[in-house]
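User: My advisor asked me to double-check a structure prediction for Class I SAM-dependent methyltransferase before group meeting. I don't want to rely on an old file, so could you generate it fresh from this sequence?
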Amino acid sequence: MSTRFNNVRYYFYSFIYDLALQWFYRPLVRRLIGAVNAQAGQRVLEIGVGTGITIPFYTGHKHVTGIDCSLPMLNLARKKAAQHPAVRIALHHAAAEDYSTAAGFEQVVFCNSLSVIDEPAQVLGAYYTGLPPGGSLYILNHFTAEHGPLRQLDKLLTPVGKTLGFRSFFPLLPLLSPEMRPGLTVLAGGYWRIVRITKPLIAA
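Assistant: Sure, here is a fresh prediction for Class I SAM-dependent methyltransferase from the sequence you gave:
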């Protein structure tokens, strides 16, 4: 999908994004970033920082770099960053597919962004490869259930999701390469999940 089209789409989303997500999403975001803050290491890369909904929850000992392909959302994130001067964050206009940004980060965060990426498994694998030993990917996203009515509902909603710019049918395990699966930890279960994928300290 073209960057120009995404910018037009996210321009309109930027007006309602925080309001739409705030009522149920804020506790999950707090828990996600709390887990990032608790892990050793200072350098964090957030993919798809959006309007900056995560920014207030980072602690000052982290050095955060946030990227997003949407300039309207990034401008809102910059305003949030200015309201939280204790958070050390640099914001850049870039796409998730810009793998050159991955080097040197100990944690990579996807907060409600993985299911809007064109090739999520490829992107996830690339950032995993760029992690140092002991580094982690953190993901907060909806993930399709392995079975049951919600799985069928996600399939039925696929055309709607495509129109809105995200994948409705989005199971987790097909996104993970065999080398990533041993490091998988589910930090919060349910339809919206927080997962951590940690790279081993010693290569298998």
